[in-house]
Amino acid sequence: MTDAPGLMSEPESFALLNDYSITVPRHAVVHSAAEAVTAAETIGYPCVAKILSPDITHKSDAGGVQTGIHTPEELRASIATIQKNIHERAPDAAITGFVIEEQAPPGLELYIGGKRDPAFGPVVTFGTGGTLVELEHDITMRVAPVSKEEAAGMVRSIRHYPQLAGYRGTASLDEAALSDAIQQVSALFTNRPEVAELDINPLVLYTDGLCAVDARVLIRPPAAAPALSRPPLPENLFFGSRIALVGASANPKKIGYIVLRNLLTFSGTVYPVNPKGGTIFGKTVYPSLADVPEQPDAVIVTVPNTVVPQVMRDAGVRGIPLAIIITSGFRETDREGALLEQEVEAIAQEYDIRYTGPNCLGLQVPRLSLNATFDPKSPRIGHTAFISQSGAIITTLVDWSLSRDIGFSAVFSVGNQTNIDFVDYIRFAAADAYTRTIVLYIEEIRDGRRFFEEAAKVTPKKPVIAIKAGRSAVGQQAAASHTGSLAGSYEVYEAAFQQAGIIMAHNLSDAFSLAMLLGSEGYPQGNRAVVISIAGGFCVLASDYAEQHGIQMAPLSDALLAEMNAFMLPGWSRQNPIDMVGDAGVHRFALTFDALIRHQEEWDIAFVVSVPTATIDPVHLATEMARFSRHTDKMVVGCMIGGESMTAGVRVLREAGIPNFEELEDAFRAAGAAVRREEELKKHL
Ligand code: COA
Predict the structure, then answer these.
(1) Would you give the distance in Å from CA 418 to the centre of its chain?
(2) 158-214 pLDDT per residue, tens
(3) Does 245 sit in the ligand 1 pocket, CB within 6 Å?
(4) Distance in Å, CA 367 to ligand 1 centroid
(5) Rounded to whole angstroms, how far apart are CA atoms 173 and 207?
(6) Which of 280, 302, 396 gets mutated to test ligand 1 (max ligand atoms within 8 A of its CB)?
(7) pTM of the model
(8) What gap in Å lies between CA 659 and CA 643, rounded to an integer?
(9) Ligand 1 geometric centre to CA of 256 (Å)
């Protein structure tokens, strides 16, 4: 029951809310029963009496709250009861006085709160309130500042919204006042950096206005402002044609050997550097960077950690703009490592070198045949930039992608992100003409606010998909915390990502299916789908998956049906999913595509589902699908399901830039996630 350091008293909290035009109950601080009675004459009955003590946080638990007081006599008795309870339950607590408050009439109990997230800064939370706040967990949150439209969107997005909008004949409540209060809490957090946490619970909402009945405000000295952002990375920084490898080795067990072997395919020039000199793989080895005949565009570093500062200095003297520091043994290991990292950073700043890592796998740019990592596998060429905080995830993923024909514009291992961080990589990938989608694997972001602001600028132009690790650990932490921490970190990430238009994927397979879909088809314009299939069973499954993943089956207009009657079998189902029936050949598909092109205002996404059958040549069908896709700006999704017999058709689709899903549900899940992004963005506005 002891007070948390920095907790404001209730009258102080009320005064703060008052400053932000949030209505609080009429109240007064008194020091005796007589003063209480005088105060109640102005406040009015019924009223509430509460203990005022810096030593008691949970007043009700200590018997420090009396409600439903209707007369001066009851008020005197209540004060006496409080004194007695405190005397018994918290004998050491200092009693500073009592707060006499107007008893707010009943209404809908809601919650508005907020906290300063270590990564994202102030976050505002809104939801259903009262004693069941944790249990209900009907909350939504936004990274501040929250605009007027976003506040209104927050109000509409909770499950209990119908209750406040007017439900079964009840009057609608004052949504405008509620949105204002959310915005005011956001402004409070922005203007008052010392406010660490705030809970208004309950905030009672009426048909006209609201009242913040209970408020808890935690004050803490503001954290230091995050470091200023660096200038954007120079264009083509990662695409130079001359690369030096310092720490190149002739020993096949060394990383410096594996990296050099990977570099043999590089379309540019490689300069191995090792004091021993000689040749490795037939290449001249230079004793130092100073001896390299031409100025390298980048240097890869695979020497032990203590040697890295010297290599960086040498690189600075040579005017090399980029270092890829694979070496580990820095901040991630111990204090000494952290100091070494600071030294490296200071040298980089002195010489204006940007660097990836340290403690990273390196980078891969398939279109330059560049594999500057010690991952023995090189990925295929594609249009997705993969930016990962885990080297192991990269090696696993590259291996996985090869068998699935998934390609990359670039693969970046970010390591400790001491100099080049997620924001830099995202901005770089956004500007790269070869990159259509960006996939992130994130464990932790240090400057979440900058990340959030920059990502929000990128997502309208290029889809950004993120896998965020750490859901379970934070989930446990959130469960154990007080309402002020309802914004558990994982949830803050989710909220911030949604606000910034980043799509969250729950596993690598989903992330890359989505990248494939959005990379070739762009964002869907809506959720109305048509399904075209020769397999009745898949039509049924498609309907189920559509419902499950938020896709709506578009009703077919009479005009469209009339056109289709001309070439479909008599008695066809005349509905969506369009069951072409098992005897259909590619011609019937083609005629259906033509009709759908003519009526493309009726739908947003077309799923073309095909299975192995004697009447359909997959290559022919894929060619028709490519034509279909060319003649519509709507999303066309391939679902050529089967095995070997589909391979040639799937290849035609891939060449035409049409994503194919081997599992029908994966197609609907990916499209559903893409659709949800649009809906989330609308909800925020
Ligand atoms: N310039 C050039 N080469 C130098 C040098 C210098 N100033 N100083 C030493 N070297 C050479 C060494 O002689 C050696 O070559 P050799 O095999 O011909 O003798 C080579 O650089 C490597 O040095 P070595 O002492 O053998 O270290 P190592 O190969 O055992 O380890 C690292 C070096 C970088 C691989 C290791 O320190 C490390 O960090 N490993 C972990 C990497 C990692 O996991 N990163 C994160 C992935 S996600």
Answers:
(1) 22
(2) 988 988 888 777 889 999 999 999 999 999 999 999 999 999 999 999 999 999 999
(3) no
(4) 28
(5) 4
(6) 302
(7) 0.86
(8) 16
(9) 6
